[in-house]
TrEMBL record:
Organism this protein belongs to: Aliidongia dinghuensis
Protein name as catalogued: Orotidine 5'-phosphate decarboxylase
One annotated Gene Ontology cellular component of this protein: cytosol
GO BP annotation list: 'de novo' pyrimidine nucleobase biosynthetic process; 'de novo' UMP biosynthetic process
Superkingdom per UniProt: Bacteria
GO molecular function: orotidine-5'-phosphate decarboxylase activity
NCBIfam families: PRK00230.1, pyrF
Function: Catalyzes the decarboxylation of orotidine 5'-monophosphate (OMP) to uridine 5'-monophosphate (UMP).
Subunit structure: Homodimer.
InterPro entries xref list: Aldolase_TIM, OMPdecase, OMPdecase_AS, OMPdecase_bac, OMPdeCOase_dom, RibuloseP-bd_barrel
Gene name for this UniProt entry: pyrF
Catalytic activity as recorded in UniProt: orotidine 5'-phosphate + H(+) = UMP + CO2
Amino acid sequence: MNPVFAALDTTDLDCARGLAAAVAPHVGGLKLGLEFFLAQGLANTAAVAGATPLFLDLKLHDIPNTVAGGVRAIAGLKPEFLTIHTAGGSAMMRAAVDAAAEAAAQTGHRIKLLGVTVLTSLDDGDLDAVGQRGPAADQVRRLALLARASGLDGVICSPMEVAALRADLGADFQLVVPGIRPAGAALGDQKRVMGPRDAIAAGASRLVIGRPITEAPDPAAAARAIAAELAA
Ligand SMILES: O=c1ccn([C@@H]2O[C@H](COP(=O)(O)O)[C@@H](O)[C@H]2O)c(=O)[nH]1
């Protein structure tokens, strides 16, 4: 299985279609997020994903009733993964799990729910500034344990926390990991990063990779090179 989801972060439909066509043969799935979904909506999200597994990264974060409504609203897209924020608390996560189960009974497709822990663009200083108890690794662990207890299928974490979470949470819990930077790639806004091979070796289930693929001169070649590195 190719563990890479390519993040297509654009508001432009033609750009997303072009990138999807170029990289889909070399990745395990496509990630469409807030930027594309807000600009293009459900129908174009479905059109860009086509038959390729879809990771819908909406990072829902609201009161339980509203998040449950959000899960029901996108259920027809049948994404493999959908993100919600663990910081919304256990009742919110459980409401999302219940809504996903109801939707599965109707569509025959079970969406896997992933809880966002601490964004990979944040470091210990950033957590401190917003009044969250760090260090980041401890906060990620607290939120991941809460996510599992609330019935989620896995979490989003940085590659730096993967090994410890894998040891704590066992083989079946999904650890889906952005903040991936192949050698020489620009960090951009990411702060807790690692290379693709090291992240998989640490125990990541899936990798989310955006700009190192989409901003490469040849996105298909960049995705192919990452797949080759992981297969070697
Ligand atoms: O903590 C998080 C949660 C989600 N993301 C998303 O992953 C990709 C990463 O893109 P890059 O261009 O490879 O940095 C992006 O779509 C984010 O929304 C994350 O980076 N960190």
